[in-house]
């Protein structure tokens, strides 16, 4: 997969040389290219921003440097990239979107500073490319670079061969499939006793069925406390008899429409 990032802070993307993404680059699984937007700003001060039309606080990123930068990046490759525009007013970045983007051959990220990029840039490339305006959460950061790091890490770990163990993302919280709509439960490793604390016996029982059931029960326990909305929105057909028993223990049951909701006071984790 090829990834381009156009930014006024190339050094902010240094973490892409480290850890999982860094190793994927070194192995040639990821072709990451970082570009300095100011290379396409031609005045004496390499200006990339100006005051907003209509007034108001802050500055807006000028269209010309972005246009030249994106034309140049697009012309340097085969085919059309998907343009990912980080903005707090975008659609939420979810595991599902990470999976979708991980299947694209080429992504170009345009992290902005200030109050964002002149709208005409998004419109211009929207006519030619698949453009995704994406928010990583309901908070406002000073720029889109940290969101790019977040998205690239979520996407890169899904690429074939990037994680050591291909099974590793099967049980991820938010992974499509068996554990869909549940948070992952707790995990343990050696030693079997630490500061007087043991581990759940079932995990050393060797009984795979019981372990799987225990993990799912713990996932319910955690999800009802931290993300009750995930259970409320789940089609109840996804809950088997054992799931319903666990939900009932946790004070949850079906409402008039069949969907599950809290029917008794919260059970603490
Ligand atoms: N830029 C500033 N805040 C952001 C957010 N929450 N998501 C994506 N890009 C952003």
Would you spell out the secondary-structure blueprint of this structure?
Layout: E1 2-7, H1 19-26, E2 31-36, E3 49-50, E4 60-61, H2 63-75, E5 82-92, H3 95-102, E6 106-109, H4 119-126, E7 130-135, H5 145-156, H6 208-226, H7 228-232, H8 241-249, E8 252-254, E9 260-262
Parallel strand pairs: 1-2, 1-6, 5-6, 5-7
Antiparallel strand pairs: 3-4, 8-9
Bound molecules: adenine.
Short key terms for the protein model shown above:
269 residues; alpha/beta; Alpha/beta knot; Trp Operon Repressor, Chain A; 2 domains; five-stranded parallel sheet; two-stranded antiparallel sheet; 8 helices; 9 strands; 30% helix; 16% strand; binds adenine
């Amino acid at each position: 997969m090829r990834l381009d990032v156009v930014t006024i802070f190339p050094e902010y993307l240094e973490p892409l040389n480290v850890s999982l993404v860094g190793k994927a680059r070194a192995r040639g699984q990821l072709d990451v290219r970082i570009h300095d937007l100011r290379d396409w700003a031609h005045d004496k001060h390499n200006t990339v921003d100006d005051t907003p039309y209509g007034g108001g606080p802050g500055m807006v990123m000028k269209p010309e440097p972005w246009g030249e930068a994106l034309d140049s990046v697009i012309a340097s490759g085969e085919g059309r990239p998907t343009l990912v525009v980080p903005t707090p007013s975008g659609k939420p970045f979810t595991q599902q979107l990470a999976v979708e983007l991980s299947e694209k051959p080429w992504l170009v990220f345009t992290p902005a500073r200030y109050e964002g990029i002149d709208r005409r840039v998004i419109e211009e490339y929207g006519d030619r490319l698949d453009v995704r305006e994406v928010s990583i959460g309901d908070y406002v950061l000073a720029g889109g670079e940290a969101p790019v790091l977040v998205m690239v890490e979520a996407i890169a770990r899904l690429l074939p061969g990037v994680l050591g163990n291909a099974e590793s993302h099967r049980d991820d919280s938010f992974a499509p499939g068996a554990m869909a709509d549940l948070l992952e439960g707790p995990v343990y490793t050696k030693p079997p006793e630490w500061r007087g604390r043991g581990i759940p016996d079932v995990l050393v029982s060797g009984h795979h069925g019981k372990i799987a059931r225990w993990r799912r029960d713990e996932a319910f326990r955690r999800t009802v406390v931290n993300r009750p909305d995930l259970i409320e929105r789940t089609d109840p057909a996804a809950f088997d008899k054992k799931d319903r028993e666990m939900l009932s223990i946790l004070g949850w049951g079906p409402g008039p429409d069949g969907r599950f909701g809290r029917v008794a006071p919260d059970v603490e984790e």
